[in-house]
Amino acid sequence: MMVSKDTATMRETGEASGKRPGIGWPIAISLATIFLAAFVAGYLDGTAGAGHPIMPTPLGAGLVVLAGAVAMGLYLRRVGAFWRDWSRRKRLYWASLIGAGLIGALAATLLHSGRVEVGGDPFFSNSALSPTIAIILALLWIGGLAVTAFFYQRVIDDHEERAYLWAGLAGFYAFIIPAPAWWALARASILPPVDAMLLVLFAVIANAAVYFWLKFR
User: Are residues 144 and 168 in the same domain?
Assistant: First the structure.
């Protein structure tokens, strides 16, 4: 009787401390931070271009990101019991996936707001970008994705690693095979000039198709 009572008490305590938090607030905080940082960066670049600088664009966007990080930290502290129940491997796994997703969302928002020329496709055109937005995008792509990919590969299991590696090979082939052919045909004016981002998109689609097929089949 005593064992049953103690077990029930422990179960109730665990459920109370490990209650699954909603994902609404993290999503809202992340999206608000991304859009506000992009808006502030575009606004400050515009005022600087008009000859009325308010503050350096990286500083303004950085303050918004810092405020978003503080807000996310306060939320995670409030629901910390749930996250502490996760293993370190599980936390790193989901942090790397969410981090990569946030980097992609932030990059898309910056591409849309950082164009010097209005109109056209912001993602697959070669229209001019503001220097600050271009530097931020380069740092996000090189630094952010490299870090998230490093931690992701360290914590995945053998099954997911197999899918990840074969998907990477498929993406490599999807880029390395058509790229020289397009380059040669473009030099003969048979095809338009090589569009690197279209090749990257083709490689990403091949990568994702192989990854999800091997992971979930």
Answer: no
What sign does the dihedral 203-205-210-212 (CA atoms) show? positive
Tokens read off for 14: 């665990």
Tell me if residue 121 falls in helix, strand or coil: coil
SS3 annotation, 156-174:
CCHHHHHHHHHHHHHHHHH
- 208 within a domain of the structure (yes/no): yes
30-78 pLDDT, tens digit per residue, is 778 777 877 777 777 777 777 777 777 777 777 887 888 788 778 777 7
Cα 59 to Cα 28, 45, 74, 120, 195, distances in angstroms: 23, 12, 22, 29, 33
Are 29 and 95 part of one and the same domain?
Answer: yes
Provide the β-strand partners of residue 129.
115
What Cα–Cα distance (Å) separates residue 185 from each residue in 175, 197, 199, 211? 16, 18, 15, 31
Quick: pLDDT tens for 81-136. 666 676 777 777 777 777 777 777 777 666 666 555 544 555 556 667 777 777 88
Q: Are the C-beta atoms of 162 and 106 separated by less than 8 Å? A: no
State pTM to two decimals.
0.59
Is 167 part of any domain?
yes
Q: Residue 96 is which amino acid? A: S
**Cα angle for residues 193, 194, 200 (degrees, 5° grid):** 155
Identity of residue 203: A
Q: In angstroms, how far is CA 90 from the centroid of its own chain?
A: 18
DSSP tally for the chain: helices H, then strands E: 10, 0
